[in-house]
Design goal:
Elements (H helix, E strand, L loop, with lengths): L2 E4 L5 H12 L3 E6 L3 H13 L3 E6 L5 H12 L6 E4 L14 H29 L2 E6 L3 H4 L5 H21 L4 E8 L7 H4 L2 H7 L8 H11 L11 E4 L5
Parallel strand pairs: 1-2, 1-4, 2-3, 4-5, 5-6, 6-7
Helix pairs in contact: 1-2, 1-9, 3-4, 4-6
Length: 239
């Protein structure tokens, strides 16, 4: 059984991705930092549906703690599917943005990507098969007021993924980035009321977490073995 790790697996999109990968027959590690109970709930739902999963807890911004946690997972063998989904918002227009707001968002999304991905690479390479999928955002492509930190962090993933895809292409490991647009979640209800969604999204609706998860699950499958280094938007035609 292939083992998968989904960082930020306690969130709306991360949970949907974890469920989709488990439904495809993989053992899924559902990662959380502050929301461990929610990660455990995702694991229970996967088990109830006949899947295999376990919750893991670590802070992706803490390189030493992350490496220690991952070494524990690697004792059972390589993690061959990695979904870098962890990320945070701390919005402010840049003239009023603090250095802490800038650094914190960069730290989770971009430094967290390195802290999680790098320790898993050599074990993955040795298997000659792997799938790495990074979750970005439409903000990294089109920009968004009040999110220069978030857009910078997520855009950084695009360049990193492209370069890593070149490094790993001959080893049977693909690296891709998925950029969701407005996706249904408790967090968007206030920020994107129906009239705003109708104005911004050509399809006149928010996307469903399961739609993002299906795309990620495909990219993590054998069928997507010739797709690498790509940035794929899923946003209802916004751009």
């Amino acid at each position: 059984m292939i083992r998968a790790l989904v960082t930020g697996g306690s969130g709306t999109i991360g949970a949907a991705i974890a469920r989709s990968l488990a439904a495809a027959g993989h053992h899924v590690y559902v990662h959380a930092h502050g929301q461990v109970a929610r990660a455990e709930s995702v694991v229970q739902a996967i088990a109830a549906a006949g899947g295999s999963a376990a919750a893991v807890r670590f802070d992706v911004t803490d390189a030493a703690a992350t490496r220690y946690a991952l070494e524990g997972l690697l004792e059972a063998g390589a993690v061959q599917i990695l979904v870098n989904n962890a990320g945070i918002h701390d919005d402010a227009v840049m003239p009023g943005m603090s250095a802490e707001q800038w650094s914190r968002v960069i730290d989770v999304s971009l430094n967290g990507f390195f802290n999680v991905t790098q320790p898993l690479l050599l074990p993955m390479i040795r298997t000659r098969w792997g799938r790495i999928v990074n979750i970005s955002s439409v903000a990294a492509i089109a920009g968004n007021r009040g999110q220069t930190n978030y857009a910078a962090a997520k855009a950084g993933l695009h360049g990193a993924a492209r370069s890593l895809a070149l490094e790993l292409g001959s080893r049977g490991v693909t690296v891709n980035t998925v950029a969701p647009g407005i996706i249904e979640s408790p967090a968007i209800q206030d920020a994107f009321p129906p009239d705003v969604i109708e104005r911004l999204v050509p399809m006149k609706r928010a996307g469903r977490p399961e739609e993002v998860a299906e795309l990620v699950s495909f990219l993590a499958s054998e069928r997507a073995g010739y797709i690498s280094g790509q940035l794929i938007s899923i946003n209802g035609g916004m751009i």
